[in-house]
Model the fold of this input.
Amino acid sequence: MRQRRKAAVIGGSGYGGSEMMRRLLLHPEVELSRVASIDYVGAPLWAAHPNLTQLTDLKFEDISPAEAAEGCDIVLLALPHRVTAAKVPELIELGVKIVDMSGDFRLDDPAVYADFYGLAHSCPQHLDAFVYGLPELNRARLKGAQNASAPGCFATSMELPLLPLARAGLLDGQEIKVVAMTGSSGSGAAASAGTHHPVRANNVKTYSPLRHRHQPEVEMALRMGGARDIQVEFVPISGPYVRGIFTTIFIEVDASLSQGQIEALADAYFADHPFTRRPQDRLPEVAAVAGSNYAEVGYKLGPARGGRRTLSCFSASDNLIKGGAGQAIQCMNLLLGLDEAASLADPGSWP
Done:
C-alpha cells in the first residue's frame, strides 16, 4: 500500500473548515495532520464542530503557515479573503501544494479584484500560480498542478449549467440574467445583524443585487469555457433555510433549437464528470443534493417568439460542499493524482 499523503487545514473553525476536515478524516489516502486557527486554540476540533466528536484527537493550534505545513504534502485554506492573501506567499515559498477556498486567487485580473473586493490585491504576482478549481472546466489543468483556487458557491451554481452552452457557442453576445437563492450557512459561523438565521427564517430578501463578487468570476470562467462578449446580471437572494443554492438563469436562443438538443449538449458535456448530473424525470432540487458534493442541472425552453426562445437553466447544489469544501477536496484529489471522488461519493440524505 502506498503511504498516505498528509494535509493541513488553516482556518478550520468555520463551517467550510468543518466540512473540509470531515472529508479529510474520512479520506482513504490523505491524513489530516494539523489544523491551524486563531479561534478555539488548544481545544479539540469537536469543540467547534460537534459532528467530529470521536473522529480525531487533533486540536486547534495557533501556529504560522510554515509550522502548519511542516511535513505536509498539501495545505487547504479555509480563511476569509484578504487573510488568505497574507498567508499564501509564505506557503508558496515552501513549495507545498495549496488549495484555497477564499476569493483571493480566483480572479485573473487584480484590477477587477480591487473593484469588487474593495481593496488592492496584496500579492498579485501570485495570481498566475493558481488554477481556477472547477473540475468540470479545468480538470486537465488541475491534474498535477501546484495550486488551486476553489470557485465560489454562487459561481459554481451558475457556471455548471452554462458551460455546455458556452462550448456550443450559445452564450456569445448574451446578457445572462440570473437569480439565485442560498441558505444561511453561506454567511459563515459568525452571526451578524443581516445574516443571523433568526432574521432569515420565514424571510426572503436580496443583497448585493447586480454587484456581487461572484459575478466577474462567472464571466471569467465562461470565457475560459469558450463564451465571447457576455455580460452576467446577477441578483442573489437570502433564503430561509440552512444549506443549498438554487439558481435560475435566463438566456435567449434561436427558435430552431429543441429541448432535446439542449439536453444532449449537457449530457455530452457532463458524461465524464461524476459530480454533475441532469435528472431525467424532474428538474433540479436542493433536497436531492444537500449534504453531498453532487450538483444538478436542468433546462426548459419556452415558446418561440419572433425567431427566438427563452431558455431557462436551473441548478441545485450544497453551498458548503460542491460550492465550497467538497469542491476543494475534489481539487486536492486532482492535484495529488488521487481518485477525484475519494471521500466525496456519498449521496447525502433524503429528504
